Amino acid sequence: MTIAIPIKSAILCLLLMTPVCHVQAQYTKMMGSERQPSYQVPGLQSEFTPNPNKKPKKQSLKINSSQQAIARVQQQYQGKVLRVQASGSGSSYQVKMLSNDGRVFYVTVDARTGSVRRN
Q1: Tens digit of each residue's pLDDT (9 = 90 or more) over 71-86
Q2: How far is CA 38 from CA 45, 51, 54, in A?
Q3: Which CATH fold would you assign to the domain 66-118?
């Protein structure tokens, strides 16, 4: 009974220190040039080779500048543009306008879709 406690704690220590998923990178040199690293994950049949030339996809925007946002707003609303402000992420523009009858209003332009919404 006194032996069981140290054995249990030793087994517990081994379990905690053993990684659950062991990923091993293999580098091979072929005729003096390095090959791309391939990764083998236990339990999977195929290898995974990362593509270093692949760039992350950029979202295509219908509105790419504040000038395009102003043009889109002026197609739908009459008045004078007072200010244009892009959102921090660049996904929308807020346009402050002065209507012909003297009222100030805001219009939001979604850069991804090009949709215009009056606030």
Answers
A1: 999 999 999 999 999 9
A2: 13, 10, 16
A3: OB fold (Dihydrolipoamide Acetyltransferase, E2P) (2.40.50)
